[in-house]
């Protein structure tokens, strides 16, 4: 039986940068997120993603 064990990183860095635009009827939000790696031997050094939200008020 093979065991596959990886040591996790106990403290991760997180960075968020966003922009919000709103009027009386609309709100547009965009947020860029960057989080450091999960395990020590992870090939990709960070997780990066961009999220958008568009809201209309009635």
Q: How far do the termini sit from each other?
A: 60 Å
Approximate shape: elongated
**What is the H-and-E element order?**
EEE
Helix content: under 10%
Overall average residue pLDDT: 90
In what range is the share of β-strand residues? Answer: over 45%
Count of discrete alpha- or pi-helical segments spanning 4 or more residues: 0
Total strand segments: 3
Contiguous low-pLDDT stretches (5 residues minimum) are: none
Largest sheet: 3 strands, antiparallel
Instruction: Order the strands across the largest sheet as they lie in space.
Output: 1-2-3
Number of domains: 1
Structural class: mainly beta
* Rg estimate, integer Å: 18 Å
Q: How does the SSE layout of this entry go?
A:
Elements: E1 14-22, E2 26-36, E3 46-56
Antiparallel strand pairs: 1-2, 2-3
Describe what this molecule looks like in 3D.
This protein has no helices and three strands. With 58 residues, it is mainly β. It has one domain (14-56). A three-stranded antiparallel β-sheet has the order 1-2-3, with no helix packed on it.
